[in-house]
Amino acid sequence: MGHQCTSVFDGEAAASTIQNQQFDLIILDIMLPGLDGYSVFEQVKDTPTIFLTARTSLADRVKGLSMGADDYLTKPFEMLELLARVEAVLRRTKKTKSCFELGSVRIDFDSYQVFYKGQLVACTPKEFELLEVLVNNRNIALSRDRLLELVWGYDFEGDTRTIDVHVQKLRKKLGWENVIKTVYKVGYRLEVQL
């Protein structure tokens, strides 16, 4: 969500693409036709990499991580877990921007601070996390259920009204009444002119 992806379906194409393009993150299967993922990974230089594979043995996981991969996820997997791991690796490797500015609002993700017209705005941890999800997925409509999963987690037992209340507070605090758009019968979208 919020990322541009390039897909290839065999090891040789993966190696060629990695040599010719810059990426912020590589998600690499081990059992690729042609050239296996370990061999492709040996050609990766300074690009964070997550192995995503059906090979579940301890030996494979240790090998992948010992080679320098940033994470190792086995199939089957939940898409939300993959997204969370992608965000975590990007955050850890500083491939995400640590600041976001829009109009009079500046968000510093490293220090967990939000400023409106130069003044520090007090945000609860959940307001900040919701803000981070909206910024990372700007211009994408996110359902209330999706926002609940991404911010509150799978086991949250409240209802989607929680999202409405937090969005209302963020709009008021940041003057974003026309920036966080309501998507009728869906949820919300942080609208940013590109």
Count helical runs: 7
Q: Proportion of β residues?
A: 15-25%
Structural class, please?
A: alpha+beta
Largest sheet: 4 strands, antiparallel
Query: What percentage of residues falls in helices of 4 or more residues?
Result: 25-40%
Q: Report, as a whole number of angstroms, the end-to-end distance.
A: 17 Å
Order of helices and strands: HEHEHEHEEEEHEHHEE
pLDDT averaged residue by residue: 90
3D architecture notes:
- The chain has helices spanning 11-20, 37-41, 58-66, 79-92, 125-136, 144-152, 161-174; strands at residues 26-28, 49-53, 71-74, 99-102, 105-108, 113-116, 119-121, 142-143, 180-183, 187-190.
- By secondary structure, it is α+β, with helices and mostly antiparallel strands.
- A four-stranded antiparallel beta sheet has the order 4-5-6-7, with no helix packed on it.
- Helix 5 (125-136) packs across helix 6 (144-152) and helix 5 crosses helix 7.
- The longest helix has 14 residues, at 79-92.
- It is elongated and about 55 Å long.
